[in-house]
Amino acid sequence: MNTKKFVIGFLAAFLLCVGINLLTAHLMSECGLPAVFGVSARADDIVRGGFPFQFYEKGGFAYRYEFSTSVLALDIGLAFALAAGFGWWWARRK
Question: Which of 19, 29, 55, 82 is deepest in the core (most CB within 10 A)?
């Protein structure tokens, strides 16, 4: 197995997972990525994060804060597993 091809495939798939998580946070949060990074002008926006499992939610008129480290670990583990599988497949193809 070619290590260079594995690393390229792994990084491509992992960056795709990170990009999908950022896109999901942008679409699920009320003010998009500015709300996620704390620079939106609204005081009552709701911020959500996580794909495929939501691990973070904060904000709103009736303030709510929810963060789950186990779901975050599951999301990260799934991203690593998918990236490793894609990296293996990328290295094995001719």
Answer: 29
